[in-house]
Amino acid sequence: MEENEQPTGGPYFVGKKDELIEAKRSFRTLEDRDILIIHHQGVFYALDSYCYHAGGLLQNGDIEELNGRLCIICPKHKYKITLAEGESLYKANDPRDPQPVPRWYSKGMKQRTHTVTEINGEVFVKLSKSQGWLESDFFQGEKGKLERAKA
Ligand code: FES
After folding, report:
1. How far apart are CA 44 and CA 6, in angstroms?
2. 104 Cα: distance to centroid of ligand 1 (angstroms)
3. Is 73's C-beta closer than 6 angstroms to any atom of ligand 1?
4. Å from CA of 8 to ligand 1 middle
5. Domain residues of the chain, as ranges?
6. What is the Å distance from ligand 1's center to 89 Cα?
7. I need a surface site. Which of 14, 98, 109, 138 has the fewest CB within 10 A?
8. Nearest by Cα to 36 from 54, 60, 19, 12
């Protein structure tokens, strides 16, 4: 992006579909934001590259289906984040249950996800600007780089 140019959020061309499928995980910087593009089970996802918890590198995380939802598991402290929504899930017992059984709960949207579209074999990402401030925003940009170094 040129200096003095206003960020629009895109959509930005991020690569050829075939190349992104072969790579499975691709890292891009768009408008000073580091994004992870994932191709998994035939679907593209895009989300902020650094985990909302302490800036862990999600590109190295395993992907698992948990409670019927595809999640990336942050390699740093194993937080589980849904690929499609950026929602953080955790499993716990409710101590009020007479016979506690571990269940899945949500901490809400924590990781910013972005919109991926494909046109004639080319893939584009439109950055999300919605939902106000999300916790993964903290680790983006120049200030985020310093925070990641401290974490
Ligand atoms: Fe991702 Fe802590 S940094 S779980």
Report:
1. 27
2. 18
3. no
4. 29
5. 12-150
6. 13
7. 98
8. 60
Q: Looking at the domain covering 12-150, what would its CATH class be?
A: mainly beta
Residue 126 CB coordination number (10 Å): 16
ipTM of the complex: 0.99
* Cβ of 81 less than 6 Å from ligand 1: no
Task: Say whether 44 sits in a helix, a strand or coil.
Answer: strand
What percentage of residues in the chain have a pLDDT greater than 70?
97
Question: Which amino acid does the sequence have at 91?
Answer: K
Q: pLDDT digits over 17-64, tens only?
A: 999 999 999 999 999 999 999 999 999 999 999 999 999 999 999 999
Residue 88 burial (C-beta neighbours within 10 Å; 0-12, 13-18, 19+): buried
Distances (CA, A) of 87 to 32, 52, 67, 107, 135: 23, 10, 13, 7, 11
Give every CB contact of residue 33 below 8 A, 6+ residues apart in sequence: 48, 127, 140, 141
**pLDDT (0 to 100) of residue 1:** 55
Pair of tokens at residue 72: 């990336």
Measured in Å, residue 71 CA sits from the centre of ligand 1 at 14
Q: Rounded to whole angstroms, how far apart are CA atoms 111 and 88? A: 8
